[in-house]
Amino acid sequence: MRDVLEQLRAEVTPILRDSELPGVAIAAYIDGRLALETSIGDRDLQRTVPLPVNAPFYIYSVTKTLIAAAILHQVKAGLLDLDAPIQQYWPDFPVDTPISLRQILSHTSGLPDYGGLPAYHKAVKVSPGFPWSVQDYLNVAHTHGLLFEPGTGWSYSNIGYLALKTLLEQTTGRSLQKILDALFFRPLELAHTFVAASLVDAADLTPGYTRALDGDELVNMAPRYHPGWVSHGVVVSTAAELAAMIDALFTGQILDLSLVEQMAHPVHSLGAHPPLQNVGCGLGLFMDTDSPYGQVAGHSGGGPGYSTAAFHFSSLAGSPTTIAAATNQEGNNVGVDVAYAAARALAGA
Questions:
Q1: Tens of pLDDT along 305-332?
Q2: Domain containing 49 — which CATH number?
Q3: Are 105 and 283 in contact (CB under 8 A)?
Q4: Which among 30, 173, 261, 307 is most buried, taking Cβ atoms within 10 Å?
Q5: How many domains does the chain have?
């Protein structure tokens, strides 16, 4: 294992240096067991405190994978139909054109997003502790309308996953926290993973450094950035517990593997996005369809303060392996870069 850690440090340190990030936590499950849990770099910008291996982060959009699994769980129970329009369950949905749950899950719904709206970014800077309401986000869909006819294109939509989260809560009568607690958190005995709903919930987050709040100055977003700015909800976790959830999904502990296969079936190709050779989008998952490590599927997450990723490699050095990584400063998909660096280190061990 010492050789693996040395190789891992050799692979990851240049990524942190080039991206000017303080640190990263990394964990890997191999053959269903936690085989690696480590950190590289520091907790603070002054580089005086090593980053703990169990540092808690917002996993940001990796939450979408958990929401997608919860939707498929309801499909298995016969309460939802992937090919039924969301309006069948939600008659007052703010868009009249029928959109199937499958299309929302795969970002082929045509629903718009708020990520590129100047008003959204201005609101985050002016009032980071006071997020938009659910209705504010849905109003974006109502006002802007669809980007294309459902099923005829692809566009990433946080609003789509807000719709799925809201549908789950309406269908089950439970909060997202209770839904994911029953499906993932309690069965896997995760002690540090939960859905954040307030700034109080964020009190123990590891400092996450961002320029999204105060211009070019790097500041810790944790005490200021309300989790409600992530419209579909956001999970707090550690690298090891995030890896545990994704590994459990792909080993059939959460859903029947036939349903996981549907999630991991690419319905749209996005081409090469290094380090992924050819990106396919499924239902709450992205795949690397030309990877040398067998089937590769997972999700990345990014937002103020953190960049995260969790990917399952069906055959890494001959073993199924799940790797999760989380940095304590945002970067351009740098969490994915670190996860793949860890894969190279493990493959070469």
A1: 999 999 999 999 899 999 999 999 999 9
A2: 3.40.710.10
A3: yes
A4: 307
A5: 1
